[in-house]
Here is the input.
Amino acid sequence: MTVTAKSTDTSPRVERPTDLADVARSEAALRTFLHGLPGVDQVGADARAATLGTRSIKTSAKKWAIDLAIRMVDLTTLEGADTPGKVRAICAKARRPDPADPTCPAVAAVCVYPSMVATAAEELRGTGIHVASVATAFPSGQAPLAVKLDDTRAAVSDGADEIDMVISRGAFLAGRYMEVFDEIVAVKQAAGAAHLKVILETGELATYDNVRRASWLGMLAGGDFIKTSTGKITPAATLPVTLVMLEAVRDFRSVTGRQVGVKPAGGIRTSKDAIKYLVTVNETAGEDWLDPDWFRFGASTLLNDLLMQRTKMATGRYSGPDYFTLD
Here is the structure.
């Protein structure tokens, strides 16, 4: 992604502990590590996110960014009224977002409830589009661990190759970090070969320091992605929170050598917003994360705006929302 402005990142980096494996040996050790992470300057994070949001991306770079954003979308339907018919329609749109333009890329994944996984897997077989399933008593996470693990195993058995789990925010906010850690480890094991996205529900974490701690906790426990939100509460994803999470994955790779993805979800509705996130990814974590394997948008309405902007760049005129299916 072509961005020439100098980075304004001044966040302190995490230093390598003597033995990171020892961090999770006890509640006390885990607490000491998490509370020893550099504090987040909230004013500075908000200001930096606002600055990055003003970057102007035009012409060929904008077209590239829109196509990349489409390829990063986890097209999502998570409603109580979901039906197999609706899921089949979503899958058709995931395969061919713009039926009138075969050059339009497909999305990264379709995200559904566990009961709809089998339908999505059947529709997407052989396409390369991932089947993601929320699990672990989404969105509250308020269920016994055995129920959460059964939820996860059922989704994987039906064809999910990505699991989006919610952490126990009550346990985290009460300082029971090892309980949250052990639960993530157990869900990771239950998910098997499926990639695990750990939903922090940042809108309930109250502070950026908690977002940083929860990000590290999710990664230390084996999460393949850290995800902002369920999309069921307000606020959901925000640019400053995503910035803090991007700093965390950047520092985690520096310390451990393992790369972890980031997924902001909820409230991202326009191409302009999506491009702000891509600029923030580029200037915070780096170009390695500008790939659907490492960055996703959890969205249901964003795709239509990306398609409208893409059509305008190709034809010089807006098609309007009625030209694309409503999700």
Summary: The longest strand covers residues 130-135. Residues 20-323 form a domain with the TIM Barrel fold (CATH 3.20.20.70).
